[in-house]
């Protein structure tokens, strides 16, 4: 029996038009004419018996039913794409993982470990996409992403990797006298990350000393900048230990006080549910889990 469903090309045209907000931009994305996109949308609306868009002077706006329909259509198209890719690549060939990663974690933790991944899984190729694409999974181009946060995102599953342990670090020449108390760190600037501005406040509270000065000091939007600022002697920074293993081992950074903080934020490997079936995602997940377990065991 023939299924009661619209043409796949019409659904693709609808999803692209809704995302782009324009027949012209959707046509450019799909490599067809604007007229063809308009015709496909009209055919879909006729098939459904409802209007999906309202044409205004400002462009195309989804109707209420169009918004609900888009949510389900997008999920269905993503699922079809993921299953198709799984069949195409086959279980024995992991294929390509299209991944986004925050720059600091990518350069300081992930990339140094990629040679081991290559040795263990030579069939897996990783394509790094711009990290801004990893904040949501509406784009079918992204399979997974490395995010920083609490591990709860509405659009994805998340596996914890590293980053909960924050340590205070500074240049070895910053303090002329060794620090003995938390208050000694206030001799110089406290360096903050803009995403987790409570870190120093939480650190001083855990050390038994609440101070309003824990909120003060320069702010940076990337841990890489914090690391460079701390090494330059600009002040003391709270940084995930996983990002500064080499600097601590080499002495480029020291811990003025051995008081780590267990933070709520960390780095997570995230992926939408429909992409979890991809062999590339499965292989990378297993490798990450094994790598993290070995590091904890060491």
Automatic annotation (TrEMBL):
Domain of life: Bacteria
Domain named HTH lysR-type: residues: 6-63
Keywords, in A-Z order: DNA-binding, Transcription, Transcription regulation
InterPro entries: LysR-type_TF_proteobact-type, LysR_HTH_N, LysR_subst-bd, WH-like_DNA-bd_sf, WH_DNA-bd_sf
Protein family per UniProt: Belongs to the LysR transcriptional regulatory family.
The protein's name in its UniProt record: Transcriptional regulator GcvA
Organism name: Alcaligenes endophyticus
